[in-house]
Amino acid sequence: MALGMEIGIDLGTSSVLIYQRGQGVKLVQPSVVAVNSKTGKVLAVGEQASLMLGRTPNVVEAIRPLREGVISDFRATEVMLKAFIGEVCKGFRATYFKPTIVVCVPSVITPVEQQAVENACRHAGAKDVFLIREPIAAAIGAGIDITKACGSMIVDIGGGTTDIAVISLCEPVVDASLKVAGDKFDEAIIKHVRKRHNILIGEKTAEKLKIEIGCAYPRDEELTLDVQGRNIITGLPSTVTVSSTEMLEALEEPIGQIFEAVHNVLERTPPELMADISQRGIVMTGGGAMLYGLDHMLSNRIGIDVSLAQDPIRCVVIGTGKSLDLMDKFAALSDE
């Protein structure tokens, strides 16, 4: 039995989730760090820093240290991880027994990006660091038995990336990673509202629109939401009513890109595994997968059943944590 704590980390563009072996999900925090731009001193991390997004004076900068699934600010990521790991390990003698960490990464990642993740975890206090690909973790978290010689398809839509994989015998047979996900949905909404209404809105407002009235398939009933922003012509505050039909139009491009990536993976899938997928269907995970009607739209266009995992947001971190029990069974984990 390991003397140190064993934890799994979903190091996401939008949020960080930490799973402790034997305890379940112990932490869910936004991937945001607030720093003093003059001194470089970190002022806040997680939820406290998230509240500062778009609301800070020039001397304070609220940043997301991960972009499109990879580390863009190494120091901020290290500080953030150290704070989160410290919170989870509170009361544990981590000074003597450092935690073993399994962290998930996009299905397509360069050696440099991989090394950055490993180094950030080690500098944050990890004893050993193992990596697992996001679709593998998502499949485990969704309750799929990936150890069988049977094709399973996962579409994991996070904040920065969409990871798609056909898995058999614990390994991705065909996979793809697309830098189009929840953040791109928000950007598309901001762009649409500016173009259609001459109103500039922030990321949080765009996210609210996405969650409350956003859709990838026509809703049974039209929904509207009043949002406030700055009129780009007058420069004054303005309120506008946005409809769910507008959201369908605004999100058409990024959703179309995800469909094309799914279609491309299916085209490259061996016939026997394709037969398995046709019978078993496709499972969607990740916060972006919760966009209204996305599963229905993909199912209609592909002709295969598409279902949303039971706990889509936590699937990856749960699978990352549970992979600790499978470390001797599959080669998706690596410590090199």
Structure report:
The longest helix is centred in the middle third of the chain and has 16 residues, at 182-197. α2 (74-88) packs across α3 and α5 crosses α6 (203-212). Mean pLDDT is 89; it is low at 330-336. A hairpin with a 5-residue loop joins β4 and β5. The protein starts with 5 loop residues before the first strand and ends in a 14-residue tail after the last helix. It contains 11 helices and 18 strands. The strands form 5 sheets. The chain has a 5-stranded mixed β-sheet with strand order 3-2-1-9-10, with helices on both faces. The chain has a 5-stranded mixed β-sheet with strand order 13-12-11-17-18, sandwiched between helices. It has a 3-stranded antiparallel β-sheet with strand order 5-4-6. It folds into 3 domains: 6-136 and 317-326, Nucleotidyltransferase, domain 5; 143-180 and 255-313, Nucleotidyltransferase, domain 5; 182-250, ATPase, substrate binding domain, subdomain 4 (Actin, Chain A, domain 4), CATH 3.90.640.10. It has helices spanning 47-50, 74-88, 111-123, 134-141, 182-197, 203-212, 244-250, 252-267, 271-280, 294-302, 315-322, and strands at 6-11, 15-20, 24-30, 33-36, 42-45, 60-63, 66-67, 70-71, 100-105, 128-133, 152-157, 162-168, 171-178, 199-200, 224-231, 237-243, 282-285, 306-308. The protein has 336 residues and is of the alpha+beta class. Helices cover 35% and strands 27% of the residues.
